[in-house]
Amino acid sequence: MVVQALGENDAGTTPTQEELADWAQQYGQTIPVIADADWELENRFRQDNGIPSFSLIAPGGEVIATDDWGAEGMIDSVLPENYEYLEPE
Asked: Residue 61 above 80 pLDDT?
C-alpha cells in the first residue's frame, strides 16, 4: 500500500480530514493521504531534514529504503507475487 503523509497545514498545525481531502483533490492524488501529527511518522524515516521524502516499506513492515527517491523504482520488487494493479477511477 502506498500512502502519503502530511505533517502540517498552512497554519503549522496537524491537517484536518477536510484539508487532507482538499490537498489530495488539488494535486490529483490517487493514493490515501493521512495526517502525520507532529511529523511523528516522517521523523522516523527522514534523514536529510528535507521534505518531501520518500521511504519504501515492504509488506510485513520491512524497511527497504529511507529518504530515497530512487526507491520509487524498487516498488515492483517488493510487491507480492501475482499482485494486480488497480487503475484509479
From this structure: yes
